[in-house]
Amino acid sequence: MKLPKLDNNSLALIGTGFVTFAFFFCGLLDILNLFIVKALLILAFCGVVAIAFYYAHKNYDKKKSP
């Protein structure tokens, strides 16, 4: 069994889906008020944003070079 190749779009969708599901799940369990949960979710969101900027910068460099 071969695993599908993860490209930029699927990585972004997985990361965003994880953060969204985590916010929803923590809100359902009423543990969103805990500091450690907020910190982990904010760090995960910052990670998704950092990955997005990394891939955007990498793609910009590819288009810029001849």
> Structurally, how many domains make up the residues?
1
Shape estimate: elongated
* Binned strand content: under 5%
Alpha plus pi helix count: 2
Uncertain regions: pLDDT < 50 for 5+ in a row? none
Q: Based on helices, strands and strand pairing, what is the structural class?
A: mainly alpha
Mean of residue pLDDT?
84
Helix percentage range: over 70%
Q: How many extended strands?
A: 0
Major sheet characteristics: none
The string of secondary-structure elements, in order, is: HH
Radius of gyration: 16 Å
How far the N terminus sits from the C terminus, by CA atoms, comes to 39 Å
Q: What's the helix and strand layout?
A:
Layout (H helix, E strand, L loop, with lengths): L7 H21 L6 H30 L2
Helix pairs in contact: 1-2
Describe this entry's structure for a reader.
This protein has one domain (10-64). Helix 1 (8-28) packs antiparallel against helix 2 (35-64). The chain is mostly helical and 66 residues long. The protein contains 2 helices and no strands.
Short note summarizing the structure:
77% of the residues lie in helices and 0% in strands. It is an all-alpha fold. The protein has one domain.
Short descriptors:
single chain, 66 residues, mainly alpha, 2 helices, 77% helix, elongated
